[in-house]
Amino acid sequence: MVISIHRPTKAIIDLKAIKENIEKEVARLPEATDLFAVVKANGYGHGAVETATVALEGGATGFCVATVDEGIELREGGFSEPILLLGIVPVTDIPLLSHYDLSFPVSTNEWLQEAAAFLQSQPITNPLKVHLKVDTGMGRIGFISTDELLEAAQWLQQQPMFVWEGIFTHFATADQADDTYWQQQNQRFQAALDCLPELPRYVHAGNSATALWHAEAVGNMVRYGIAMYGLNPSGTALPSAYPLKPALSLVSELVQVKLLEKGAGIGYGETYITPQAEWIGTVPIGYADGWLRKMQGFSVLVAGEYCEIVGRVCMDQLMIRLPRPFATGTKVTLIGEDNGQSITMQQVAEQLDTIHYEVACTLSARVPREYKS
Asked: Model pTM?
């Protein structure tokens, strides 16, 4: 999808906010604890390379991504710091993992045996850096049996082309007020660690929510994700341990303003009919940009005034009801602050019956990202 730079719709990313969010977390971490900035999914829609750059300035010592291609993007962007993939990779990607020095998770002994067979015919230059993943209750990927985990750890220590670099788990309910299940997972992870004769360089269980609300978590590294972008991992369920500054604003402009008479239909399906003469403004953003059809009935800000989205959101445009005529070119704020009023990504998520993670990631590549620091 082409980036539409010749259109007033854009996402503005405050890099200083990201840096400050990371600095606040780094200052709270125990001594000798690393912070890896999670920049997967294009930095949660904020831009991977740009946010990775400022994350280092804030004190991050490494990065987490989801896929091999995301790791390659960072390497080709000039980053030499540790990069950890968070998703399972096929054995056939071993040459890329070696060439680009990408750490990756392993969750079965079968994968290790397949890798050993692959390396017999496909030799590599750089050793493979493995993080063993333990499934303590997420049900996604990871070892369940401590016997199999121990077998994997012992096998890795005997292989010259493998480096056992880390071990980790992921919490399912770290962002909830009831920590009963979190405690169970934390205990299971500790039990897994206890079965091993020694531990690797990195032991990590902390995501953003764990870092904010569970200082007692096991490990010496934090995978700092959604919070670095200034968003509370729990939504509104728990107050943040310190103020988080949202980094993303979404803005556009009015491209047409017209006075429609009473009884005029607005948009596909005629889902809104003007009950009286009304000023209607058109804004060039739609569901192809990630501003979905369910946003009908929500509001945007024009000169600090909330203006309702009327009619169905189109693929490329939407219509809003204005309190009075505004000049074309007037700024429209969809996420962010305007004249003392604000619309948060959390509010957008509530309108969509989802979480702000999804809102940030849904903003499509067509929307240009503009960076300020």
From this structure: 0.95
